Amino acid sequence: MTIMPFEQEKDKLINGVNHITISVQNIDSAFDFYKDILKLKPIMKSSRSAYFCAGDMWIALNQDETYNPSDNYAHIAFNVPEIFYYKFVEAIKKEDISEWQRNQSEGKSLYILDDSGNKLEIHFSTLEQRIAHGKKHYGEDVQWF
Question: How far apart, in Å, are the Cα atoms of 109 and each of 19, 39, 120?
């Protein structure tokens, strides 16, 4: 194992998520979904990709005609402040968008699929709230750091 010269500062190396790239089947319909349904701020659109801002987060869409989302729990959760959450979820549900599961976790969540089948979550809560809930309900086999 190679020790990096900055080992003493390893906790500062990765300080957040730079961006998230999502594969989509059709860039035009995906662009409309992320702009019109999720209300993300569009930054760029080309024939094969698009960039959006979600708060301080950069979301990239990349067209892949052979893309087929896997059957697993991997998903992206978008944070929505509580004061907007209910009206936003109501507006999404009027669009007849498929839900991929019902909320069973702490906080409020709507689990939806984009038009390529990517799993998304519209959520409000904080990490601190999730930790407090977990310490109360997850049992003794959880190791907290």
Answer: 22, 17, 10
